[in-house]
Amino acid sequence: MGINLRGRSFLKLLDYTPQEIRYLLDLAGTFKNMKRAGTPHKYLEGKNIVLLFEKTSTRTRCSFEVAGMDLGLGVTYLDPGSSQMGKKESLPDTARVLGRMYDGIEYRGFSQQTVEDLAAYSGVPVWNGLTDQFHPTQMLADLMTIEEKLGRLKGVKFTFMGDARNNVANSLMVACAKMGLHFTACAPESLFPEAWLVEECRKLAEASGGSVTLTEDVEAGTRGADVIYTDIWVSMGEPDEVWETRIRLLKKYQVNRRVMEYAGPQAIFLHCLPSFHDTKTTIGAEIAEKFGIPEMEVTDEVFESPQSVVFDEAENRMHTIKAVIYATLK
Ligand code: CP
Ligand code: NVA
């Protein structure tokens, strides 16, 4: 049966079947080849999209802008604090206004409910560019990169290290469970994903041939892994006060040479970025001075090593986001 995603929102991966995810990955591959070959693909000329950001961004914003422009779309960017939404105008009112002017809406912000409500009220496809709970467009880029580098998704041993209940980790667990990967969260128990989501993912993994494992043991969690993935220890929207406890909890879950040796030479390293792997950022330098750690979730050595494919992964954000825009607006 053909897949048709026209008119659909992309709010979380839980809403999509493995076949639909497969379709988006294949479409992203087609767009990547077209971009490389210089083949124009302004298939959506005459349509317009708006990008609504309540948190900062480099990759997601630029991916939506470039993908939109490559597809011939008009693109409006609203930065954090520059729209009336929430302050002078309710979310349902803003959604209905944007839905009258635009063919699609990207939203990055805090609550998952906001992006769900935008979709309910606007009447046009809404794409989740990250909420506190999920980061679904990131997942398509991650799956695409794994498949490009390892040649398969099914059966891949995938380990996430760090804050395993953040938006990226939650989404990775869902993505792996849907697509038949063996997902391991390697983290302190207090940062394990929520029980309901683990249960949901275990059911999905049963159907796909994957699995979901939670462990506090670094060696057990990383030995023989094909993919080692980490994310920043404190996410956008969390108060600065949590740094101290988070560092204490997660220091032992840093991706370093020892972890990559447990995994083995076949393993690749992924990170959604941005990353604190040195002191060349203001926050990185502040943390180094305050807590005496110059590298956080990943060492500079691993980040810069041949096993690290983080910039291929970042590029794939654009190709996969283009697939989502095209499939839902065409
Ligand atoms: N990975 C990611 O979403 O990056 P940005 O915060 O730069 O968009
Ligand atoms: N967990 C991170 C992801 C950034 C892309 C955050 O929410 O800040």
Features:
five-stranded parallel β-sheet; single chain; 46% helix; 330 residues; 13 helices; 9 strands; alpha/beta; four-stranded parallel β-sheet; binds phosphoric acid mono(formamide)ester; binds norvaline
| Mean residue pLDDT | 97
The residue fraction in helices comes out at 40-55%
Strands of the widest sheet, in order across it, are: 7-6-5-8-9
Ligands (ions, cofactors included): phosphoric acid mono(formamide)ester, norvaline
Order of helices and strands: HEHEHEHEHEHEHEHEHHEHHH
Q: Which range does the strand content fall in?
A: 5-15%
β-strand number = 9
Poorly predicted runs: none
Any idea what the shape is? globular
Give the N-terminus to C-terminus distance in angstroms.
Answer: 18 Å
Please summarize the sheet with the most strands. Answer: 5 strands, parallel
Q: Number of helical runs?
A: 13
Derived from helix and strand composition plus strand pairing, the structural class reads alpha/beta
Radius of gyration: 19 Å
Structural summary, described in words:
This protein has 330 residues and is α/β, with parallel strands linked by helices. 46% of the residues lie in helices and 13% in strands. It has helices at 18-37, 59-70, 91-101, 112-122, 136-150, 167-179, 195-208, 218-222, 242-250, 257-263, 282-291, 300-303, 310-329, and strands at residues 48-53, 74-78, 104-108, 126-128, 157-161, 182-186, 211-215, 227-230, 268-271. The strands form two sheets. It has a five-stranded parallel β-sheet, sandwiched between helices. A four-stranded parallel β-sheet has the order 2-1-3-4, sandwiched between helices. Helix 6 links the parallel strand 5 and strand 6 (182-186). Helix 6 (167-179) packs parallel to helix 7 (195-208). The longest helix has 20 residues, at 18-37. It is globular. The two termini are 18 Å apart. The mean pLDDT is 97. It binds phosphoric acid mono(formamide)ester (CP) and norvaline. Norvaline binds next to helix 6.
